[in-house]
């Protein structure tokens, strides 16, 4: 089988997926200042938030990354909703801020459980470029739930990518998520229902 045939086979396994990388800001300094036990507690708070939120929006954890996580969705809008909801939930338990990068695009599925493609790289690099509390999403293929707003548009130079990336900073709409003691599932459940009723395209 020659290279052209292999390329054709690989091309046929290309799929469209949405990716998000989320991690804790200032984690290394936090470990140094507060110790390992406090750091583990922060990581546990993040993982609890991800585990609670991700299934509600039909996205899955692809891999845990120490103080971060990579999540994957078939559709962009539910993934965006999950990332914003995770940030909202975590801020009521964690001491650190989170940051995130989101991107959508065609990728190759390798061995049935790994992804290779530009969208993965963009999402990862956007997360690295985000400031504390920032949720950066590439505009290509971006679909926003009605309760998520664009705070501002940015153009980001990402390491390893030749062209600048157009992105937006995402925030929950004012009043969309209200603080609740203990954070029962009800607030997130209402957001799931709201997100299903309407959405809007961005970019």
Radius of gyration (CA) equals: 17 Å
Task: Report the end-to-end length measured between terminal Cα atoms.
Answer: 41 Å
> Helicity, in percent?
25-40%
Q: What general outline do the C-alpha atoms trace? A: globular
Number of helices: 6
Assembly category: single chain
| Helix vs. strand class | alpha+beta
Order of helices and strands: HEHHEEHEEHEEEEHE
Show unreliable segments.
Answer: 178-189, 194-203
Major sheet: size, sense and barrel closure? 8 strands, mixed
Q: Based on DSSP secondary structure assignment, what is the total number of beta strands?
A: 10
Q: Note the beta-strand portion.
A: 25-35%
pLDDT averaged over residues: 82
Provide a descriptive summary of the structure in words.
The protein has 203 residues and is an alpha+beta fold. The chain contains 6 helices and 10 strands, in the order αβααββαββαββββαβ. It has helices at residues 3-12, 27-34, 36-53, 76-90, 118-129, 186-197; strands spanning 14-24, 60-65, 68-73, 98-110, 114-116, 135-138, 143-145, 148-156, 165-172, 199-201. Strands 1, 2, 3, 4, 5, 6, 8 and 9 form an 8-stranded mixed sheet that branches. A hairpin with a 3-residue loop joins strand 4 and strand 5 (114-116). Helix 4 (76-90) runs antiparallel to helix 6 (186-197). The radius of gyration is 17 Å and the shape is globular. The N and C termini lie far apart (41 Å). Residues 178-189 and 194-203 have low confidence and may be disordered.
Key attributes of the depicted protein:
203 residues, alpha+beta, two-stranded antiparallel ribbon, 6 helices, globular, disordered C terminus
